[in-house]
Amino acid sequence: MSQPGVQGSTNPAQKTNPLFSFEGRPSLRQVAPLGLQHLVAAIVGIVTPAMIIAAQCDFSPHDTTRLIQISLVVSALGTLLQVFPIFRVGSRLPVVMGVSFAYLPTMQAIASDWITANPDQPAAAISVILGAQIFGGAAAFFVGLFIKQVRRFFPPIVTGTVIFTIGLSLYPTAVRYMAGGGNADTNPLFGSWQNWLIAAVTLLIVIFFNYFTQGFAKLASILIGMIGGYILALIFTVTGLAPLVTFENVSSATWFEFVPPMHFGLKFVPSAIISMVIMYVVNAVQAIGDYSSTTLGGMDRNPTDKELSGGIMANGLVAVVGAMFGGLPSATYSQNVGIVTLTRVINRLVFAFTAIVMLAAGFVPKFSAILTTIPQCVIGGATLSVFASITMTGVRMIASANMTQRNLGVVGISVSLGVGVTSVAGALGGFPGWVSSVFGSSSVVIATLAAIVLNLALPNTPVDPDKPVETLEEELERTKKEKEAAKKD
Q1: SS3 content of the chain, % helix, strand, coil (to 5)
Q2: CB burial class (10 A; 0-12, 13-18, 19+) of residue 482?
Q3: How far is residue 447's CA from residue 119's CA, in Å, rounded to a whole number?
Q4: In whole angstroms, what is the distance from residue 122 CA to residue 144 CA?
């Protein structure tokens, strides 16, 4: 696929080509391939969280299909609202919205708490997630209104710590799926060589296309990896090595279906609401990075306060409305921001095309049912690289701050508390139940609160701009010399 925007922003061709203008009017022939490119980059991220949550909640095949449908519809509507704002709601920037992996650890923790307390009603866990999402979306909308005042509590050292913890908390999910999903009691093939071979092949394909190719192949590396893993799983099924793929649900799925509002219901659990509100506030501030990357990479400028405020409010509104239909939490997609930066194509019709295709797919259960046939080992192999990317995004944000002793303490103590407390079963068993539900099930919640408090409480030693920042080796050498000098004195 051609990459017309790779040419520099000063190229005269960009001034006349409507693709490089937000309100230009390019032809469908120009729009379609670029819109499909954004769709390919986003599709896996949109449907995979829904499949993971559906499996955890022990959904029926029909409800799993419906959750995928709604994920596509909500992502499409969110993208359209960003590109075509309503009043102040919407960024009016070339971004793609989709169901976000960043919320996955919190959703899994909420579902786990509910299922533990109500083992006979696992499917009802989704209603608890959606009920909490309404309050989270309202919190994000509020943050959008007062973004100037709120963002000072979330400098890169705090936001980076949170994103880093999110990535760490997702690794067990990827490994469990690579092993086959579920556990040894519920899945007789859990941990089998078949699952691990398919997962490894999927991961290797993703790595190859991500690091050894360019253009469309690189952008679609995860999709290509899943297709490769899926083909191998089909071969295993046909040859009798492992029954990993079945099409029964596809044949019974209809061609068109509208999922009615409140199909999954809503339940309001205080501990779940607190966790989700914290996540929405953090991700609202983190979205500033995506908006800034979009405008800097595609428009050679910083985003305006109006664009930031409108974009975050749109995310909050989509969360509230989406929860009524069963749509999971969404966010701006960094991979699509990368496409904008690469191609510099910012025309809103390109993103409208992407959204319309997603919307149409969301009303076709046959399409969603086909996606449910993807074996969990394939999903695990493909998403491991996604989770690694989330982790390293956090590392990159942390590294953008000066690595002073204070900042090292903010990161180290926050991550230690978050991962440590949630890794020890019953660590908060002596506290009231709501304390354990809020702080004992999600490492992200503890790490977020700890990072905010430590960043506010620890003294901030001014950094001399003329003094070069020491590397770790230089700091250790200086400390060693200081100790030797002290002994001589």
Answers
A1: 70, 0, 25
A2: exposed
A3: 29
A4: 34
Instruction: Please state, in angstroms and rounded to a whole number, the distance separating the CA atoms of residues 401 and 404.
Output: 9
CA 488 from centre of chain? 55
Helix, strand or coil, per DSSP, at residue 250: helix
Residue spans of alpha helices (H) in 179-269: 193-212, 215-219, 221-239, 248-252
Residues facing residue 332 across a β-bridge = 97
Q: 47-83: per-residue pLDDT in tens?
A: 888 888 998 888 888 888 889 899 899 999 999 999 9
Instruction: Give the CA distances from residue 323 to residues 10, 258, 468, in Å, rounded to whole numbers and listed in that order.
Output: 44, 15, 50
Q: In angstroms, rounded to a whole number, what is the distance separating the alpha carbons of residues 380 and 173?
A: 8
- Compute the residue count for the chain: 489
Q: Is 32 exposed, middle or buried (0-12, 13-18, 19+ CB in 10 A)?
A: middle
Q: Give the type of residue at 483.
A: K
Structure tokens at 364: 């076709």
DSSP structure string for 278-331: HHHHHHHHHHHHHHHHHHHHHHSSPPPHHHHHHHHHHHHHHHHHHHHHTPPPEE
Average pLDDT (111-131) is 90
Q: What's the Cα-to-Cα distance from 270 to each of 110, 131, 277, 310, 317, rounded to whole Å? A: 11, 10, 10, 28, 21
| DSSP conformational letter for 476 | H
What's 18-64 look like in SS3? HHHCCCCCCCHHHHHHHHHHHHHHHHHHHHHHHHHHHHHCCCCHHHH
What would the pLDDT profile of 403-435 be if each residue is shown by its tens digit? 888 888 999 999 999 888 877 877 777 777 767
Q: How far apart are CA 166 and CA 422, in angstroms?
A: 13
- Mean of per-residue pLDDT scores for the chain: 82
